[in-house]
Amino acid sequence: MSDSQPKQPSSSNDWGNYITLGNIYKGRSKYAQAKEQYEKALEAAQQINSRKGEAEALLGIGSIHNALSQFPKAIEYLEQALLIHQEIGDRAGEGTDLGALGNSYSSISQYQKAIKFYEQTLAIAREINHRAQEALGLGGLGRSYQSLGQHQKALEFCEHWLTIARELGDRLSEAGALGNLNSCHNYLGQYQKAIECGELQLVITREIGDRSGEGSALGGLAWSYSNQSQYQTAIECYEQWLAIAREIGDRNNEAKALCNLGGSYRNLGQYQRAIDGYEQYLAFSREINDRSGEALALCGLGNCYSNLSQYPRARECYEQQLAINREIGDRQGESSALAGLGNICFYLAEYQKASEFYEQQLAIAREIGDRRGQGATLGNLGNSYNSLGQYQKAIEFNEQQLLIAREIGDISGEQSALSGLGNCYNSLDQNQKAIEFHEQSLAIARQIGARAQEANVLGNMGCSYNSLKQYQKAIDLHEQQLAIARELSACSQESQALMYIANCNFNIQNYQESLELNQQSLTIAEAIGDRYTAAQAYGYSGRAFAKLKRRREAIDAFNRAYQLFREMGQQHWISYVQTQLKQLGESLIADQEFPEAIELYKLQLQSLQELNDQSGIGWALQNLGKSYYNQGEYQKAIEPHTQMLGIARQLADTAMESLALAWLGCDYREANQWELALNYFQTRIALAKTINDRSAQRETLGWLGGISKKLRQNDRAVTYYSEQVSVIRELGDRVGEQSALYDLGSFHYDLSQNRQAVEYFLPALALAEQLEQKQNAANAHYMLAQTLLKLGQIPDVIFHYRSAKNFYDELSETDWSQRCLERLQALGDL
Question: pLDDT tens-digit profile of 515-541?
Fold first, then answer.
């Protein structure tokens, strides 16, 4: 058909010609011109009181609003057309209106309502023996059941539609049926059958010169190839579709082709190219006021930004998508936006919040009867509860997903559910059971030719074998995962596989190999802008550097990882890096490499100060002070611990404040500045009582007792030690209670307060014997003998020396046993 302007009707009353013109413009996706012609048709029909013409014009205007995603407006016009067709008894027109209304309600995800309209269309078509309209009704029912996830039922309707189209020799309708069958087979994981239908559709559309249909066929084929992870072939199909859309001036399909190209580039991990495609789609959709397309573009952008760990931008896209979907009443789109928001929370380890979004998504899927959507959402809920450590609940959700997938014949969903169950059992350390589920999942992925999913499952199985310490088996599986990723040019998957292999090598102490693999993973992640994987690779590289004693490089890698994780709000990984730095510092201190430890913490402080992370600075100051303390430089330790105290009070972080006070007390105590030490410990006691930190009270009371004893403030020391015993008893720490009672006995013994000493040694002995602490029992017996000797209670002295000797003999403490023997001989007992 020529792109020249259609000839205008000669008479203003010729509504039929206006309708014809409107149909031509609509076929060319020139919706504004089409609407103008339909409105002229309406005016002409009303002037001559042609009810049929009025109904046809209203139907045309409604169809334009449908094309522009203005569904409430479309429904308004179509209902008017339906009333007129019913009034004049035009059953064929009534059937067409009902079908168009079905399309409107289907577009806003009200599938059950759409089905009722399509069923009425089908009934009228069969009543008046209108086979073409019957085919359209069957097609509408097929698409609706497909949207509800009932793909087998959808397949049956589409096959019936195909039969009628072939019977009528309607090649255009035949192509439409084949296109829908392509979709059904795709959803059922029958990708080869999907390709066969798509290729037949493509042949027919080319034979009849239907360029728009040819583009749709290419789009369906691309989807089939994408499901088989043949992303490059899919891209070639989408590019042909795009070229056709541009050639015929079909802006709507041009935008859709760009959107799908974005999805394919995203699957390849080429996120910037994907973003370019989605942004063009977004611009086109806004230009033609396609609100549904705008929402779809925002969804694609959200997915890309999420893959790039740019979570604030991703969230913004999903929130805009959600607002549009709610505005146009698209419940399916609303469900998709909620899934995106849930995924953002999941990636940020906000698992409870993620579950709340997924619950909203599940409610919508149930409301609109979307069984496939229900299954997918149940899988997401399973992942969230697995991450929350609620493994049984996670298993229940994944089992529900599996049940639905098998009920509706969703083989892809079945594969996903089995993989989810494998991950749950892996979390429960039931790794062998996890592997059984992963093997079932792997078999399905291979059966349907889903190479990307196959790679994912191989990765999960590798992690299970890693947990079983079968590292070589794990490496073999991850290398298979890596091979597939490279075959698919899936950069993100390749980067992840390299990291898994690196971790296995780390576990078998191949630290150099682990480092090199992590560096390869890092190079790929940075090239594609995947900050999350890059941050992980930096962290794991730091760990390998530390093992190789390349500590400066380890510090640099950890600091880079920390910076990236902090930018992304990844609290779990921030803690991981801090722990690694702490372990590195502790290893330096254990090796008495105090200058290196101090240098480490100074570098960490510099990085944290650049990020203005006050909390991180506070904890780093603690470690720096601790390093000076362990080196015996107590005066130098005071400065960082004083700064730590200031930050803690500024942040109102009582846990940090309590530790800072403890360190300062210890610093001044070791520097023999007893009064200052006493002040800090007393301040800590007051804080510990305010926040009811009984462990801190117990620890500090012991320190206060020790300092009071040094200052010869004996009454105060007794008070502190006695209070410490009370706290220990409240905590139910019987071992600590035994030790504290013994210390109190020793304190009174040193002061020659022998009766008070006996009062503490006796319960200390009783507890030691109850707890079967032979060493402590021996010591308590010995000290009781020593104390009672001063009190002249000789029979009891002999008993305790004998008891102490028996324990020391059992413990092979020969020196102490000999000492007891000498005491007994002196007493004339032997």
Answer: 999 999 999 989 887 888 999 999 999
Q: Phi and psi of 131, rounded to 5°?
A: -65, -35
Question: Residue 39's closest CA among 18, 66, 10, 14?
Answer: 18
Q: Which pair of tokens denotes residue 479? A: 């290398």
- Cα 369 to chain center, whole Å? 26
Q: Which residue has the higher pLDDT, 611 or 749?
A: 749
Distance from C-alpha of 601 to C-alpha of 637, rounded to nearest angstrom: 13
Give the three-class secondary structure for 637. Answer: helix
Sign of CA dihedral 771, 774, 776, 780: positive
111-143 residues labelled b (16+ CB within 10 A) or e (exposed): bebbbbbbbbbbebbeeeebbebbbbbbbbbbb
End-to-end CA distance of the chain: 126
Classify 510 in phi/psi space as left (phi over 0), alpha (psi -120 to 50) or beta: beta
In 269-351, at which residue ranges do the beta strands (DSSP E only) sit? none
Percentage of residues of the chain with pLDDT beyond 90: 63
Contact between 450 and 415 under an 8 Å Cβ cutoff? The reply is yes
* Nearest partner of 782 among 764, 803, 768, 766, judged by Cα: 803
Pick from 122, 121, 178, 132: nearest CA to 155: 178
Q: Give the pLDDT band of residue 250 (cuts 50, 70, 90).
A: confident
Gyration radius (Cα) of the chain, Å: 38
DSSP E strand boundaries for 485-605: none
Interacting residues of 730 by C-beta distance below 8 A, sequence separation 6+: 694
Q: Which among 378, 418, 419, 420 has a CA at the least distance from the CA of 400?
A: 378
How far, in Å, CA of 102 to CA of 120, rounded? Answer: 10
Q: How far apart are CA 246 and CA 350, in angstroms?
A: 44
- Find tokens 């889903």 and name the residue: 450
Q: What is the DSSP letter of 188?
A: T
| Best CA proximity match to 85, nearest among 116, 50, 128 | 50
Q: What is the DSSP letter of 196?
A: H
The tokens describing 703, both together, are: 């320190």
Whether this prediction's pTM lies above 0.70 is answered by no
580 contacts: CB under 8 Å, gap ≥ 6: 539, 542, 543, 546, 558
Closest CA to 420 of 376, 388, 455, 450: 376
Residue 208's φ and ψ, nearest 5 degrees, are -95, 0
Q: Are 98 and 61 in contact (CB under 8 A)?
A: no
User: Of 696, 702, 229, whose CA–CA distance to 483 is shortest?
Assistant: 229
Residue 478 neighbours by CB under 8 Å, 6+ apart? 458, 459, 462, 497, 500, 501, 504
In the predicted structure, residue 3 carries a pLDDT above the cut 70: no
**DSSP 3-state of 623:** helix
Of 319, 284, 280, 290, the residue nearest 302 (C-alpha): 319
> Each residue of 201-210: b (16+ CB within 10 Å) or e?
bbebbeeeeb
Which pairs count as long-range contacts for 643-646, CB under 8 Å and 24+ apart, including other chains? Answer: 644/618, 644/619
For 360-369, which contacts have Cβ atoms below 8 Å and span 24 or more sequence positions? Answer: 361/335, 364/331, 364/332, 364/334, 364/335, 364/338, 365/335, 367/331, 368/109, 368/110, 368/111, 368/112, 368/148, 368/331, 368/332, 368/335, 369/111, 369/112, 369/148
Q: Is the CB of residue 532 less than 8 Å from the CB of residue 540? A: no
